[in-house]
Amino acid sequence: MSEQKHDFRAALADDPNWASFLYLTDELSAEESDLFENQLAERQDLQAALIETTRQLACLSSAKTAQPLADRSLNVSINRTVEKTSPLKAIAVVVSLAACVAIAVLVSSDHFASDPIGNSQSFASTTQAAFQPSDSAQTESELDVMLAWVNISNSDVFEEDDTVDSNLDLSVPDWMMTAVLLEAEEMGQAGDPAFRSLPPAKNSDSI
Amino acid sequence: MRNEPDNSDLVKHFCVQLEPDLRAFLFGILRDIHEVEDAFQRTVLKAIEGSANVNPETLRGWLFKIALNEARSAKRSQSLARRKTEDWKTQFGKASIVEDGLSLDWILSKEEQESIEAAVKRLPTNQREVIERRIEKGQKFADIATEMNRPIGTILTWMRRALNSLREMQEIRNLDPAYDSGRSGNDFPDNE
């Protein structure tokens, strides 16, 4: 407090703007305020200073310049933490992240150049093996994105239709069966058990 | 011959010309927009009534002396309760709120207010923080010194420099309206 009183007395003589600020922000005692107002009556420089500082204070009071102090203190603490961190360590982290991303890009480009279709699982496993996220959540999320992209791209690949038409008619026409039997007789294979189950040959007239 | 009509016209002319300054001056003392309005009207009336004896060369100082007397008289009759409950921060904060159609052009135009906001952002970090703590948060200098872990003399110095810097930037802007663009954040580096 004594420091401020000394400051006001000096300011009243040398720095009318600062004296006005102290007056306007209630930093002065009642006696000092009276002293200031008495001087106002005689000094045009003090009048001008009071006017200018009043305007300045009114604008600052309504200005939206503040960052919430909580955020700023957080930023300050973060900045201080960053300042304490070794720059070499920061560089090492950045370099390792960049290397991981580069490897992932190279692997993905090689795989799709040689085997654009299928083998998505092997691609994913290869990618995962090559791209080992060490300690960064960012690299893990990048891997997830790449895998998701692979799955989406593979869904467009044509899949072979393995279904069998169960309604396919497998019955053999009679004329074909007759021809087979006649041939078998000619070749002496009529006694072959394979032909015994066959229905007897029909008259060739029915063909 | 009586000079009163001429002086009366001169006084009226000066009252109109100095109205923004007179209102700002009165607000600095009274801190209430309604009391400023009353005090200004009384100032103008008394000035016109006493215009016969005024020296035109000292008319400006004479007007402000009348305004000061009116303000101190009004201040003595201000309600004690209001003076105790409303601090300067509340009073200045109210100045930006227009009430009952009273004009606040005497403070600053919107353009100049934006200019001050931009100027604050260009201050060095320490000065900007002191400005925001003292003016926007209303913290006392002693508390600011404790929280920023600095001597109170340093805090007062930063505050003083910040106000000077803002004033200089405003003066430069008045000379060169294009000043606001392209200035970096270290125009006034803080020398600790």
In short:
Chain A has helices spanning 2-14, 16-24, 30-42, 44-62, 69-84, 87-114, 120-130, 137-154, 174-186, 193-196. By secondary structure, chain A is mostly helical.
- Overall shape of chain B: it is globular
Distance between the termini of chain A: 128 Å
Helix-strand makeup class of chain A:
mainly alpha
Give the low-confidence spans of chain B.
182-187
Structural class call of chain B reads mainly alpha
Q: Could you give the order of the helices and strands of chain A?
A: HHHHHHHHHH
Written description of the protein model:
The complex is a heterodimer of chains A (207) and B (192). Chain A has 207 residues and is mainly alpha-helical. Chain A has 10 helices and no strands. Chain B is an all-alpha fold and 192 residues long. Chain B is 68% helix and 0% strand. Chain B has helices spanning 4-17, 19-30, 33-49, 59-76, 80-85, 88-95, 110-121, 125-136, 141-148, 152-175. In chain B, helix 1 (4-17) packs antiparallel against helix 3 and helix 7 (110-121) packs across helix 10 (152-175). The longest helix of chain B is centred in the C-terminal third of the chain and has 24 residues, at 152-175. Chain B is globular, with a radius of gyration of 20 Å. Residues 182-187 of chain B have low confidence and may be disordered. Chain A binds chain B through residues 3-4, 7, 15, 17-18, 20-21, 23-27, 37, 40-41, 44, 47, 50-67, 69, 72, and chain B through 21, 24-25, 27-29, 60-61, 64-65, 68, 72, 87-89, 92-93, 95-96, 107-108, 112-113, 116-117, 120-121, 128-129, 131-137, 141, 152-153, 156, 159-160, 163-164, 166-167, 170.
Write the layout of secondary structure elements.
The complex is a heterodimer of chains A (207) and B (192).
Chain A lengths: L1 H13 L1 H9 L5 H13 L1 H19 L6 H16 L2 H28 L5 H11 L6 H18 L19 H13 L6 H4 L11
Helix pairs in contact in A: 1-2, 2-4, 6-7, 7-8
Chain B lengths: L3 H14 L1 H12 L2 H17 L9 H18 L3 H6 L2 H8 L14 H12 L3 H12 L4 H8 L3 H24 L17
Helix pairs in contact in B: 1-3, 2-3, 2-4, 3-4, 7-10, 8-10, 9-10
